[in-house]
Recover the amino acids of this structure.
C-alpha cells in the first residue's frame, strides 16, 4: 500500500473542552494529507464544545452522549472509525505542524510496521508557544518498559488490524488504560513499531494522571495492575522509574 492511499482515523474525546478544542480541531484540519477521518466523541459537554466542533466541516463524525469515562469514549470512536490507521488526539492537544500525518503515512507504507510513535512537547496551558518540557521517546527495545519507559500516547498510531486482534482500551483502568494498551501491544505481543524522532504533538500541561499527588499514587497503582492484567512481572523498581524518567524531559526542553 502506498502512503498516499492509507486512510487515517483520528479520535478526539471531549468534555467541556471549549477553551482548547478549537486548536485541536484546527491542527487536524490543517494537515496536508488528504485521507483523514476526524471523529469527535463528546461526553455531553455543558459548555459550547459541541457548537465549536460543528464549525469545523472537516469533522467526519460527531457523537455527544453520556459515557463511562475517557477510555470508554475512545473505544466508541475506534468502533465508529473506518480508517486503516488509528490515532488519538486529546481535546487539549494539537499536532505540531501540518505534515504530521503525511510523515506517519510514510512509515505505514511499510507493511511490516503495525505501530509508530514520536516525541511530544508539554506546553504552557495559556501560551502554547512556551515549551515546559520535551518527551523524547527514543527507539523501542523489549527491556524499555522494564526501565519505566513508555511512548507518549497522543503520538501513538496503530493499524486497525492490531486493535481487531489485540483489543481496545481496558475500561477497568481510569488513568492508565493507554499505558496498559501500549504495554500489551508493544511488550506482550511484540508488534513491530517504528520511532519517528520528531516532535509531532504538543500537549498542554495538567493531564489527569499528573494533576496531584493523589492522582499520581492512583496512576502508580493502575500501572501495576496493567502489568498484572497482561501476566507480566515488572522489576521491583520499574514503576518507580516511570515518573522519575520525567526529570530528563525538563533537561531536554
Amino acid at each position: 500500500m502506498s502512503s498516499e492511499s492509507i486512510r487515517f482515523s483520528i479520535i478526539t474525546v471531549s468534555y467541556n473542552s471549549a477553551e482548547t478544542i478549537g486548536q485541536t480541531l484546527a491542527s487536524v484540519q490543517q494537515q496536508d494529507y488528504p485521507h483523514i477521518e476526524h471523529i469527535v466523541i463528546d461526553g455531553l459537554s455543558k459548555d459550547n464544545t459541541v457548537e465549536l466542533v460543528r464549525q469545523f466541516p472537516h469533522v467526519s463524525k460527531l457523537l455527544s452522549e453520556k459515557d463511562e469515562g475517557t477510555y470508554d469514549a475512545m473505544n466508541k470512536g475506534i468502533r465508529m472509525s473506518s480508517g486503516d490507521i488509528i490515532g488519538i488526539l486529546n481535546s487539549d492537544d494539537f499536532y505540531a505542524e501540518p505534515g504530521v500525518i503525511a510523515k506517519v503515512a510514510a512509515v505505514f507504507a511499510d507493511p511490516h510496521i503495525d505501530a509508530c510513535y514520536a516525541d511530544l512537547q508539554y506546553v504552557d496551558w495559556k501560551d502554547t508557544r512556551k515549551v515546559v518540557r520535551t518527551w523524547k521517546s527514543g527507539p523501542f527495545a523489549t527491556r524499555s518498559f522494564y526501565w519505566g519507559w513508555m511512548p507518549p500516547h497522543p503520538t501513538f498510531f496503530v493499524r486497525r488490524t492490531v486493535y481487531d486482534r489485540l483489543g481496545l482500551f481496558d475500561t477497568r483502568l481510569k488513568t492508565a488504560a493507554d499505558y496498559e494498551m501500549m504495554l500489551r501491544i508493544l511488550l506482550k505481543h511484540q508488534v513491530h513499531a517504528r520511532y519517528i524522532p520528531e516532535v509531532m504533538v504538543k500537549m498542554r500541561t495538567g493531564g489527569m494522571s499528573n494533576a496531584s499527588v493523589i492522582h499520581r499514587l492512583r496512576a502508580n497503582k493502575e500501572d501495576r495492575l496493567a502489568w498484572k492484567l497482561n501476566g507480566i512481572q515488572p522489576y521491583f523498581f520499574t514503576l518507580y522509574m516511570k515518573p522519575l524518567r520525567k526529570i530528563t524531559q525538563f533537561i531536554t526542553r
Summary: The domain at 3-251 is CATH 3.90.550.10 (Spore Coat Polysaccharide Biosynthesis Protein SpsA; Chain A). The chain has a mean pLDDT of 93. The beta strands are 8-14, 36-42, 59-64, 85-88, 93-95, 115-123, 131-135, 157-159, 193-204. The longest strand covers residues 193-204.
